[in-house]
Write a structure and sequence with these properties.
40% helix, globular, 13% strand, alpha/beta
Length: 357
């Protein structure tokens, strides 16, 4: 028996890589991940530390769903919490895709969408962007949807790794095109960092729309894994049947509740991202590096041979960036926004590497 589905590529530095280079993992500045540069709130750390590790976690995440519902004015029964939004992506594929179905993905994007589809025996159809700014042709997407008739479609907004953020009317058009065909999964993992965002909750008036939210990015809960989806109660109930018991652990649930309660910490993190992104964009202009305007908490730069640039940054400067080759963008690196001190260290290292090419 052969298995043809490889593991998706993600950011986040594997501890074995710096060790092989004679570096200490804790000394490497990791810009390959994109989370709140302030880290988790002190309230989150306290809540996670105080969680009772000897007690089974609530398999229904009742208190956390209630907290999310209050924050969003949404019914708790329309919310399903997962072990990161990645778990929910795979649950959705299991729940709604069969081998003779089709799926549709707006690319380049998060690799778990394709992986989840392929595990169900479905090779998704991809729509690539039109032009240098990574913008999709929405009418072309609608035309393709009418031909492909996908049971499940994935759209990341703002998109990873390009930072492109579609307008409300564009997303509503796509959802409407899918109304009698299949489900639209709108992944909003980076939504909190969009400065002028529109209210996507209005999309939930359409029964074929599912919103995915990640709590690992805006609240810096990457190590705990936490995310949730919003959909009709029927969709939530159906997907829930495929979820393992105790999928979301107790410390994660406690941390999620505490994170939601600390709105000020999130606001301060969002402001730090805004300042850092403006700084890096100015530097990119000075270095004559092309980049797409990003609505998320990262910037994707055109640097040439991305794999080589990443390797030299890590080896010579203990700085890690995300090589976008696995996204189909071998000339680009993605840089997550960190503290200003860290951002300046990155700029120094990147400038040296580019000069030495």
């Amino acid at each position: 028996m052969t298995f043809g589905i490889g593991r998706p590529m993600h950011g986040g530095l594997n501890s074995s890589e710096p060790r092989s280079l004679g570096l200490r993992h804790e000394d490497v500045l990791d810009f390959s991940i994109s989370v709140n540069p302030l880290g988790p709130s002190p309230l989150v750390i306290k809540a996670a530390n105080n969680a009772n590790l000897a007690t089974y976690p609530d398999t229904d995440c009742v208190q956390l769903r209630s907290a999310i519902g209050r924050e969003l004015s949404a019914a708790p029964d329309s919310i399903l919490v997962g072990n990161g939004s990645t778990e929910l992506i795979h649950l959705l594929a299991r729940a709604f895709l069969k081998e003779d179905d089709s799926a549709f993905i707006f690319t380049p994007t998060f690799s778990e969408y394709k992986a989840a589809c392929r595990l169900q025996g479905v090779a998704p159809v991809a729509l690539s962007p039109d032009g240098r700014q990574f913008q999709w042709d929405v009418q072309a997407a609608i035309d393709a949807i009418s031909q492909v008739k996908p049971a499940l479609s994935f759209l990341c907004n703002p998109n990873n790794p390009t930072g492109v953020y579609l307008r409300a009317d564009e997303v509503f058009e796509i959802a409407a095109a899918l109304r009698d065909i299949g489900l639209l999964v709108l992944d909003e993992a980076y939504l909190s960092f969009v400065e002028k965002r529109w209210d996507s909750l209005e999309l939930l008036t359409m029964p074929n729309v599912i919103l995915l939210r990640s709590m690992t990015k805006d609240y810096a809960l990457t190590g705990l894994r936490l995310g949730y989806m919003l959909a009709t109660e029927d969709v939530v109930g159906h997907v829930k049947q495929y979820q393992y018991s105790w999928s979301v652990n107790g410390p994660a649930q406690a941390a999620g509740i505490a994170a939601i309660s600390d709105g000020l910490h999130l606001e301060q993190g969002i402001e730090a991202v805004r300042i850092g992104k403006e700084y890096l964009a100015e530097v990119a202009d000075l270095l004559s590096l092309d980049y797409a305007p990003s609505s998320a908490n990262f910037l994707t730069l055109k640097v040439g041979r991305a794999t080589e640039i990443r390797r030299r940054l890590l080896t010579n400067h203990s700085v890690c960036v995300r090589d976008c080759t696995s996204f189909g963008l071998p000339e680009y690196v993605r840089i997550g926004i960190r503290s200003m001190d860290d951002n300046r260290k990155l700029v120094h290292a990147l400038t040296k590497v580019l000069q030495d090419r």
